[in-house]
Amino acid sequence: MIDFLWNPILKKTKLQRTVIDKLKENILFQDLNPAELTWLEKIVHLRTYQPGEVVFKQGDLGVGMYIIAKGTVNIYVEELNPQSGEVKSQLVTQLKENDFLGDLALVEVNSRRSATALCQDECSLIGFFKPDLIEVTERNARSGVKILFRLSEVLGQRLKETTSKITVMRKKLQEKELKA
């Protein structure tokens, strides 16, 4: 009888602890203290996706980011073949537990998804959306600033990595042109 009464409470506590742990492990939220993380856990959105289910499609309006609490999400870019008019999906990367995606939508105005996110297996994702970020900054500016500083750091790092890859690609293209 006691197990029956306490079981739902224990399950909820374990789920809350899992969400809080995942938030704490994410770079955007790692500077938040335990009270801020507990408050944030009540704001974020936990959703389960089935294998093959689309999280978002390339071109969709972006409203926020997702942290992968469990599972694997494949990221595809759809490319149009100019000759045939056929659309082909190209796998860009595979994201696993603790990775996150869609974070640019937190800061862009009228953000459009640059790729499609498709669950490879059963996934649990934690959604943190632009209205959630606005709520955090309005209700607790200190927490909002901590998150925004980390988000700026992530976006800056990704910009550096992209610039580096473009530089390497440009150099290879120039070398190829010189050989021809």
Beta content: 25-35%
The helicity comes to: 40-55%
Provide the number of structural domains. Answer: 1
Say how many strands there are: 8
- How widely separated are the two ends? 80 Å
Strand order of the largest sheet: 1-8-3-6
CATH domain topology: Jelly Rolls
What would the average pLDDT be, to the nearest integer? 89
Shape assignment: globular
Structural class: alpha+beta
Give the secondary structure arrangement, pairings included.
Layout: H1 2-25, H2 34-41, E1 45-49, E2 54-56, E3 64-70, E4 73-80, E5 87-95, E6 100-101, E7 116-119, E8 123-129, H3 130-139, H4 141-179
Antiparallel strand pairs: 1-8, 2-7, 3-6, 3-8, 4-5, 4-7
Helix pairs in contact: 1-2, 3-4
Description:
- The chain is built from four helices and eight strands, in the order ααββββββββαα.
- The chain is of the alpha+beta class and 180 residues long.
- It has one domain: Sandwich (Jelly Rolls).
- A four-stranded antiparallel sheet has the order 1-8-3-6.
- A hairpin with a 6-residue loop joins strand 4 (73-80) and strand 5 (87-95).
- Helix 3 (130-139) packs across helix 4.
- The longest helix has 39 residues, at 141-179.
- The radius of gyration is 20 Å and the shape is globular.
- Residues 8-13 have low confidence and may be disordered.
